[in-house]
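Pilot study result, target chain (346 residues):
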Amino acid sequence: MKIRENVPLSSLTTMRLGGNARHVVEIESPEEVVKAYDFAKEKGLPVWVMGGGANTIAHDEEFEGVVLLNKLRGIEIINENNDEITIRAMGGEIWDDLVEFACERGYSGIEAMSKIPGTVGAAPVQNIGAYGQDIAGVIEQVEAYDTKLKKNVILDKSEMGMQYRKSRFNTGEDKGRFLITAVTIKLQRKNLEPPFYSSLQRYIDEHKEKDFSPKNIRRMVSEIRKEKLPDPEKIPSAGSFFKNVYVDKKNADKAEQSGIPIWRNEDGSGKINSGWLIESCGLKGKELYGFRVSDKAALVLINEEAKNYQDLAKARAEIIDAVREKFGFVLEQEPVEIPIHGGNNK
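Predicted structure:
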């Protein structure tokens, strides 16, 4: 268990903002999880659990607590036959390494989520998703340390409260209660079938693609993301900064009639691309308080020269106000924020 003191949060988060964390603890084995929480308890400090820092925003003030970095590694096949495979991955594994592992073996279910930054353990917390797939569609169970019961537990999918970019792990009274040590998913040996998500379909049409195998879908999605989204390891950003807008059938009909592109669900409800809304407000490529709305994907905020959280707050407010004024929709930030006081576990 590695313990560091006074670590800049700007070095741990891909937006490259934030003051120091009092302590940072790297957890490299399951046995170290309890030790890490005991360390925080001995110090009388709150805890914040972090994966790769790609979906985390830090404030300028010092975090008077302990940041736990999940570094648990390992991927193993639990069961495999001609039709499906069950894979168990440790929480500190890089998410995209798991996607590659599955696609190389010809299994479908997560190929459209290629190149999403972050760790496996963080994936179910936010219920990550892209291009029509999300982890809720494949997850079987998670292994986690329960800070309330103070023991290791196994939770089935039915116990996770999965919704769009939400789960039991990041909402309500259980927010921050669990540190996810391992995730089990089940995938199918098949090809993805249409209808494809709009941007993926455009790529398929433009390049006259006919091969929809997991490996080839991964290649296509990787190329789309490379073109549209900056690599957060090289260019400071937090990926998609705003969640897409979900509307019921009545408002989906209304939006469609007004010319707003919408992805329909079976029940008639729909999802509106927040990037399209931002671009339609004339903000694509615009510089705001040291941030730039990406000229390739308006959903992305790039930190070009901002040094503090207040600059981010002002840029965020200007974008939200513009979309609200023009369309009536209120955008919601996707990255989570490390609180100034307290953590996600006591």
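One observation from the pilot: The chain is about 25% helix and 25% strand. A full batch analysis is planned for the follow-on phase.
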